[in-house]
Structures are given as structure tokens and as C-alpha cells.
Amino acid sequence: MDDPKIVKPFPSSVSAVLFVFIVLSAIPALAAPPAGRNWSLEWAEEFNDSIDYRFWNNWHDKTWRTSSGDSIYLSAAQCLSVANGYAIIKTKKSHDTTYSSGLQTKLTYGPGYYEARCKSGRAWAGFWVQGGAVADCSPITAGCEFDIMENVYGHGIISQTIHWSGYGSCHQQVSSATNFSPDSFYIWGLQWSLATGATFYVNGTVTMTDTAARPTNAAPVIISVEYGDTGTEFETDYVRYYKDNGPSAIAAPIAGAKIKSFSCSETANAIKYNLLKPCFVSLKYYDLQGRTVCSFVNSY
Question: Which CATH number is associated with domain 37-247?
Fold first, then answer.
């Protein structure tokens, strides 16, 4: 590995590229789908300028009774917006009426990897997948609700939960409470597999597994707020769904692989790197919010 690899990122001014690279080198890389599988990004909503209503339906113009028994009026016009690259769902109270909203995908998706970067705030906020019909007294394989992130009651105890067998007397659930702050952004993920069940993640780290949760029915993706104090905001940076195409050709990074040298040439407009041994290389460019702008290298 003595010959250095050379990447020429942009034809424009290198000084600007180097400045951004140096500034962002301290920003942690985004979480990625779990290693060992061949993933393809099937759908993503980045909320850059607006909500892409080719893919979403609003929760609006109806009264909804929440799981706590409260009634709220769903209003996209009053409670749903996009600003600075985030979808924002606010709660509002007027007299005796609570207003809130949510988004649900028009299409349904099956087993794969679901991910969103969001901050719950002090609202009963959730990022969840309704995996099939959660019918009364039915087995977990028939359908379950995957709560990838839920700030239950808005009290700040964020949990990840699987519900099945209906919501009545037969209801069952497994849950894992987290220690994460409702006032910070985290990357929440779910790997739903017909072979291994459900695995939950926060910032790329496994937080809960359940090998029995293997529903076969496709499911919509939902971000929503049940209720919260007036002005409470649930912010979502992006929502993504990756399809699982089977085992990856490279199951995991080579242990102990290190960079021998790395340099940025201002005159040649190039990034050079040299490895101690062959390994998978991922070289990406991130913006100031930690989002991927482009990928220079993503190969062996």
C-alpha cells in the first residue's frame, strides 16, 4: 500500500474545500445502517425546503383520542411546518382544545432499516412504524407497533418499545427506557428482519433486541405528537428507509486497519491517503449540521 490514493473532490477553490474539511473534522459522522448487510437507500425525506407530499399524508382536520384518553384536534395548518431543514410539529392549546399533528407515509415498507434524526422536545413525540395489524390477542408475528423513539407523556423519559396482541386485555409489550435528553438530537434506528427480529439503535449503538418480533406485513412510517405544552416542538432532521438486499460482500471492517498518511494538496486540488493494509474506505463530506453532502470514496 505504498502508492497513495488520490481524490480530486471539486474543481472549485481548494481553500474553501480545505476550510470546510478542517472545520468539520471534529463533527462525528452520521450513523449508518448496521454492518454486514447490503443496504440500498429506498426512500428518504431530508426536509430541506418543504415536506414532499408525494410521499406523506398529513394528520389533520379530525379529532383524535390519544392513548392517554385525551382528545386533540389534528391541524397541519397550525402545527406543522418546515424551517432550517427540519420538520417541526408544534402543540397549541386554545381554550379547552389541544392542537397537534403528524406525518404518515402514503406507501408502506417492510423489513429493512429505518432511521431518523430528531429531537423530541417536551412533547409526547414519536417516530414509529406500524408493522401490520396489531389485532387483539394476535401473535407478535401477525403485527406489531415499533416505537423507534417515543417521549411518553412528554416527561422526558424516551423509550423504545414493541407493542403487539392488540391494545386491550391481551396487549403485550417490551420496552427499553433510554437516558437520552429530550432537548438534544439523536439518530434513532430500527433494523427489522424476518430472520433475526427487531434491533433498536441510538446513534449507531444497539439499545434493545427482540428475536420474536418478525411481522411480515408492510408498514407506514409515522412521525407525530400526541400532545404537549403550548409551543412545544418536535424537530425531525430526516427520515430514511433502507432495503436489506442480503449479506454484504464485506461483513465488517478489517480489525486494526489504520491510515498511514493523509494530506490535502492546495495546489493540486486533491486529497491523498495511504493505508497500512487493504480495507474498506469511506470518505464523505458533511455540512455544518452533520448531514452528508456527497461521498468521495465508498469502496474497497
Answer: 2.60.120.200
